[in-house]
Amino acid sequence: MTAREFEQALAASRSRRAGIGEPFHFHDELGSTNDEAARLAEAGAPHGTTVVAAAQTAGRGRLGRSWFSPPGAGLYASVIVRAPRAAPLLTLAGGVAIAEGIRVAALLPAEIKWPNDIVVDCGLGRRRKLAGILTEGASGKDGLQHVVVGFGINLLPTAYPPDIADRATSIAAELGRHVDAPAILVECLAALAQRVAELAAGNHLDVLGRWMTLSPSATGARVECEGLHGAVKGTTAGVAEDGALLVRTHGRIEAIRSGLVRWL
Ligand code: BTN
């Protein structure tokens, strides 16, 4: 994984990315690409600026978790998005983009598990995680300044920490062959560019519709989650227009926004 390989792939795909991926910053190692992208954004870096690292020493996941980021085993990337109309649904749009990018570049049937875990179906209702997305926004006195869309994609099998080892997989492990990291980055960025443009144009329903298609577990799956009045068990019933997971429980529908959902 070298800067030059990424730069060549980016140059060959410029017309499909509407500025997402430029300027491009590659580092052999960073604490977190999200932190570096946020630092660049605070310094005025434009919409589309993309940071990739071959390794992260302090990779972060959702809900305060860490993201295991050893050298070369994953694609660790963050994109600065300056599109206020797109912001409310960027988390879901990011999931759509990464699933689509993996589908196009690796021909692997990646799915989304709410809110935006990227998983593959291993049969018997089991799913293993291939990638995750962390969107982080910063506001100033004039409202939202930027959102950083960070994504980590497991490329190669590696010694995952014990707490995630039986739930994680990689593109190479699923395909049984080498994966081209620059091609995966380029397809994810092209898909992100398309989805951000849709949201910016007010086409939220297109993004939600695509998200639903890519997320079979968002309908008819048994889950346990934190509802308004404590823990509830229920059956998934799609997503609301603001991205909340809808869960049917005791004859009513609860909108879940916390992210603490356990699939049963
Ligand atoms: C999750 O599933 O919990 C989200 C994981 C997001 C990890 C990526 S790796 C690149 C970027 N930099 C970070 O520190 N986190 C995101």
Structural topology:
Blueprint: H1 3-11, E1 24-27, H2 33-42, E2 50-53, E3 74-81, H3 90-106, E4 111-113, E5 117-123, E6 126-140, E7 143-154, H4 162-165, H5 171-175, H6 181-200, H7 204-214, E8 219-227, E9 230-239, E10 245-249, E11 252-256, E12 261-263
Parallel strand pairs: 1-2
Antiparallel strand pairs: 2-3, 3-7, 4-5, 5-6, 6-7, 8-9, 8-12, 9-10, 10-11
Helix pairs in contact: 1-6, 3-6, 3-7
The site of biotin has 20 residues, from α2, β3, β6 and β7.
Describe the structure.
By secondary structure, the chain is α+β, with helices and mostly antiparallel strands. The chain has helices spanning 3-11, 33-42, 90-106, 162-165, 171-175, 181-200, 204-214; strands spanning 24-27, 50-53, 74-81, 111-113, 117-123, 126-140, 143-154, 219-227, 230-239, 245-249, 252-256, 261-263. It folds into two domains: 3-214, BirA Bifunctional Protein, domain 2; 218-263, SH3 type barrels (Roll). It contains seven helices and twelve strands. A seven-stranded mixed β-sheet has the order 1-2-3-7-6-5-4, sandwiched between helices. Strands 11-10-9-8-12 form a five-stranded antiparallel β-sheet, with no helix packed on it. The chain is globular. The relative contact order is 0.16. Biotin (BTN) binds at residues 32-34, 56, 59-62, 65, 67, 76-78, 117, 132-134, 150-152.
